[in-house]
Design goal:
The structure is a homodimer. By secondary structure, chain A is an alpha+beta fold. In chain A, the strands form three sheets. A seven-stranded antiparallel sheet of chain A has the order 4-3-2-1-7-6-5. In chain A, strands 9-10-11-13-15 form a five-stranded mixed sheet, sandwiched between helices. Chain A has a two-stranded parallel sheet with strand order 12-14. The structure holds a DNA duplex.
DNA sequence: GGGGAGAGATGCCGC
DNA sequence: GCGGCATTTCTCCCC
């Protein structure tokens, strides 16, 4: 087994220089903060970012086994042939202890990246699409606003139907579920109450809806519109064409 | 700038052997699937796990800039002094293209880890604690079940109060918000309806609650109990003691 | 900083 | 597979 003693200095120097650190190791992990957790010995990939974020990834799965947020501070100590890696975030009262038995690889360097992800096809895009093409809701629908932060809540799409009845549209980019229905109900009830209206329509716009959610929706007098978010599969065909090249 | 051509073979071999792959690079990223995204050139850390999971991390922040889920397949090609890394998940209809201009470091190997995270202090622990110490809800409370999957929903804690009135307790390990209140309301209404009961009590048990949520809770005749999840800060004191060593 | 809601949410469990 | 829901959710935006 490799001599780990050198990593005490190596990692501490990298952290002082605010480099990004990546290493593979065999370790145990204890976490204490919003919950308590323990992870017995195994091989993991550890990433420490330039902002203090710490990620520990097991060799399978999307989500980190353990992590510390942005702003955490870290110390490294060598003792009894092991590296003791400690992280703390005093503001969040979170603590993590990594006991490292072996380090398989190590790299650290400064990374330069000032780019932000550009993204399309969100719920907001969906609301804007319906604002620009109100007939997708129904003929005669006259939208007033999208993504409005009212004191009654955050309403995706708001307008009048052909009979000038106030109508709240809640958009979901994927499956409509029970909480989407209760969210819609909450908005409709608050607006009825605040404006003293007898009737306010509620419409849930989403590609599909669970049967329980549909029943609840209809029981409460609301309506479902099957609507896909914009561009949802636009590049899928392109992707399929790309398959030729695979 | 380094010659990248060798990485076509190196990475493909590692993927064939189902190794875990980690590298640092300068790249652009396009994603198409549940949404569409583009990330302009910058330095990132890329991880490909043994189950096909792909993560791309920018040098700051907890969450990956882009990712592909478990089960995705990957190919690497060298052309025009660049590495073209493509990922696809046909089941999920998701595609990702990484155009790599430089690779700063690279490592791949098989990682062995069959351990599962043990965790304490979850909502389930909270419900069990209240089941074992029902007086934390109120004197005379008689719990029937925890974490029960009924056809009315997934109810954290269920029981009778001292007057034998059926009582639903919804636990939240952190802040009680509007959706917690609507969730509670949904359970209470469904149980009243299903059992033909005039009155069913609803209690929201959590460490704190937002003012709007409290108002809505009280408007609907439900109650708030300030209750902390078990062990929440137990090791915090231990952590504080550890601070001496920092 | 808290509140409210979306997310390419993820992951778990039950049916 | 879908459904319902917790998550050390995270993140953004607004008050």
């Amino acid at each position: 087994m490799a001599d780990l003693s050198k990593y005490e200095i190596i990692i501490n120097h990298a952290l002082e220089r605010r480099e990004s650190v990546v290493f593979g190791c065999n370790c145990t992990i204890r976490y204490s903060g919003r919950a308590e957790s323990y992870l017995a010995a195994g091989d993991r990939i550890v990433v420490i970012k330039q902002d203090g974020t710490l990620l520990v990834h097991q060799p399978e799965g999307s989500t980190p086994a353990n992590y510390m947020k942005n702003g955490s501070s870290h110390t490294v100590n060598f003792r009894d042939a092991k590296i003791y890696f400690k992280s703390q975030n005093l503001d969040l009262k979170e603590f993590m202890d990594i006991e490292i038995f072996n380090i398989y690889f190590y790299h650290s360097q400064r990374l330069d990246d000032d780019q932000m992800l550009e993204i399309a096809g969100t719920e907001e895009d969906m609301a804007k699409m319906l604002f620009n093409e109100p007939s997708l809701i129904e003929e005669g629908f006259r939208p007033l606003s999208t993504e409005e932060h009212t004191k009654y809540g955050f309403i995706d799409l708001f307008g009048y139907d052909k009979d000038s009845v106030l109508t709240v549209v809640e958009c979901k980019r994927y499956n409509g579920d029970l909480s989407a229905v209760t969210q819609l109900r909450r908005y409709v009830e608050k607006i009825k109450d605040a404006k003293g209206l007898e009737r306010v329509r509620g419409i849930l716009a989403c590609p599909k809806i669970s049967s329980h959610a549909l029943k609840m929706l209809q029981d409460w007098g609301f309506e479902f519109r099957m609507i896909n978010p914009p561009n949802y599969l636009e590049r899928y065909d392109k992707g399929q064409r790309k398959l030729e090249g695979f």
